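pls design
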């Protein structure tokens, strides 16, 4: 792998970060369904948080490495600052951990919002106790090597999703979603619209449940599109 190290892309505005925090990885993936983004920006199901309560929203700081080599991670610590999410293309390597709690502690100390790696980590107990957001494809006790500087702040692929420096990264219990920087406004607007729909649906379901329990008048609970589908299938309602 040819090495290349670039400075980080500019941080996303706080207004964008706050809007994304009100949503989540699932809603943002929904928001990209019609935007032509591969996999709707949703990383593979293999990339999961060490603990389900871990959550992050931030600006992508990208790394590319392979074969359990964590030298690029160490070098990147000098370039990290508040608000960046370290997204590591580790090629899904499972033969060694790319990092454990010591590197995670250092990343947290320099201000990185989280670490996401398409590969393995170790020190699961310590990482869980820390509560610092770490997302990985698995766990492996064998330690890393330090050989190749890799590529830092270049376009990568992590969990089957293209990630460019400066993209919006959102991770939670459902997984990790990456929104291309040039699609952020469209994706947020669509996700917020979907969020409003889901709030309305929850309220309607709650009202139906209350009416059923209290002996009140029941009403049609199905969304209109479901009824339309049934009529199209020749089912009388």
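designed seq:
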């Amino acid at each position: 792998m040819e090495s290349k190290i670039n400075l980080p892309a500019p941080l996303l505005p706080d207004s964008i970060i706050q809007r994304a925090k009100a949503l989540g990885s699932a809603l943002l993936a929904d928001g990209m369904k019609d935007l032509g983004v591969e996999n709707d920006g949703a990383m593979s199901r293999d990339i999961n948080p060490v603990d389900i309560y871990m959550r992050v929203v931030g600006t992508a700081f990208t790394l590319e490495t392979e074969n359990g080599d964590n030298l690029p991670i160490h070098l990147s610590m000098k370039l990290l600052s508040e608000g960046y999410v370290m997204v590591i293309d580790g090629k899904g390597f499972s033969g060694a951990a790319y990092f454990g709690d010591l590197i995670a502690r250092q990343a947290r100390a320099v201000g990185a919002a989280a670490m996401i790696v398409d590969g393995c980590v170790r020190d699961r107990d310590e990482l869980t106790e820390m509560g610092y957001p770490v997302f990985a494809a698995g766990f492996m006790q064998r330690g890393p090597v330090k050989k190749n500087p890799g590529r830092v702040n270049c376009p990568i692929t992590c969990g089957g999703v293209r990630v460019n420096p400066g993209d919006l990264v959102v991770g939670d219990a459902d997984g990790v979603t990456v929104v291309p920087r040039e699609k952020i406004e469209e994706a947020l607007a669509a996700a917020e619209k979907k969020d409003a729909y889901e709030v309305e649906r929850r309220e309607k379901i709650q009202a139906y449940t209350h009416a059923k329990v209290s002996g009140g008048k029941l009403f049609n609970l199905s969304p209109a599109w479901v009824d339309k589908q049934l009529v199209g299938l020749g089912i009388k309602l």
